[in-house]
Amino acid sequence: MRRFPLFLLMAAFVAAPALHAAEPPARKAAMLYAQFCSGCHGADLQGGRATSLLDRKWMASDDARLLGAIRGGVPRSGMPAFRKTFTEPEIRALAIFIRESAHRRADPAVGQAGGLPEGIQRTALHAYRVETVLSGLDVPWTLAFLPDGRLLVTQRKGMLVEGIQDDGRWTARPIKGLPRVWVRDEGGLLDITPHPDYAANGWLYLTLADPGPEDSGNTKLVRGRIRDGRWVDQETIFKAPVATYTDLGINFGSAVVFHNGYLFFSFGERGNVGQAQDLSLPNGKIHRLFPNGRVPPDNPFVHTRGALPSIWSYGHRNPQGLTIDPRSGALWESEHGPRGGDELNHIVRGRNYGWPVITHGMNYDGTPVSALTRKKDMEQPVRHWTPSIAVSPIHFYTGDAFPAWKNQLFLGALAQQELHRLKVEGDRVIGQELILKGRGRVRGVTTGPDGYLYVALEIPGPDTPDLVVRLVPAD
Ligand code: HEC
Fold first, then answer.
1. Architecture of domain 16-106 in this structure
2. pTM for the full predicted model
3. Where in the chain is the domain with CATH 2.120.10.30?
4. Residue 184 CB: number of other CB atoms within 10 A?
């Protein structure tokens, strides 16, 4: 046997405890799979010496079985235990990787929108037809009706149009004089919400990516009015400190809803992971304000040293959806997870929703975000989606045209091009149905004054005009 110099042996001995204490660097799930699993389960998870991992059963079962198999193996069949090989976050990342792969296989149609469905579409409670309302849009972001029946549609690249119905025919006219927006990746013109007393005061609340110094931007909330086709009377309601402006074009949020004289406004984490937990920053929070921008004195953190007094809840990643349950007044929120871990949350005053300390997702590059999916004093989502569906708008349907859908939650997805109907009871979801699938990225959902369900669709492809469509009853 070779003899090692004594100092090397000592160095190894001294270094050992430190090596043990430090987390090994995160390794990517796809690389881990290729190195440790593909030999038996196949390069594309299709199976080989061992079973295929693309089986649909993984999508139905919870993560416990999948995680358990990777940690502990299946000794009697020759599946090795990987408990000692991987960190806990890596085991989670592998589980997400397997789920994503299985999902992709089960759903080859995703990503190729094939035009609108023709004829009568049947669902569990109602049959509907799809009608085109407005065409020729460019990445519609949200929809909002005014009391007089006009339909406002924001478009991410900075345009706002007003849809007007005349004799059953819709035309769109652009609104002029809008604020300058920072059009970068997910940033641009975002949400628009009329004041509950719009008929009397004409206020519209607009969220946008505000251009800052040196090609940076951040989420901002303004209000203004539309007069003679122009945006006028603009006032700033919420602006983040200039120090928080960043050149990252992701995770802006944002949505605005009103309830009982208050305004709720969601602000994305903006790609600076960790800021959602920092109460001195606006990032990754839902804020509560009076409609004129003042902070209500009974907000949860007004007496917390160093905290922004506008914060209502925190620990959010990219909250693009907010809505109020018309029956209870409860605030609901949807947020994009990283890779996996999209969430639907029931928002309670002052609570921490966990990002990035707990999450059901992993980083886009396949490295783990966190080993934890739950922790004391952090809220669990009501529903979560892994792999991600890219959950975006949420809306409680309030019309009469589809009576059995009344007060049910409609939830849209971008990447998976889905519209879901969720039956909500209290703070729980007790039923779920897919209403529309593979017809475009669902950007906005709202109830029209006619009771029809209006949906903004971004149709993938370079030259495909985007649409507003409506679902009308065909029972
Ligand atoms: C030496 C071969 C081998 C390797 C390497 C291997 N597996 Fe397996 N695995 C098996 C066998 C055998 C089974 C039993 C199922 C069967 O084939 O019928 C299995 C089963 C599983 C199951 C299903 C367990 C159940 O409850 O049905 C999962 C999940 C799984 N493997 C994941 C992985 C992952 C992830 C890796 C890489 C980290 C991996 N396997 C590496 C052989 C292997």
1. Orthogonal Bundle (1.10)
2. 0.80
3. 121-473
4. 17
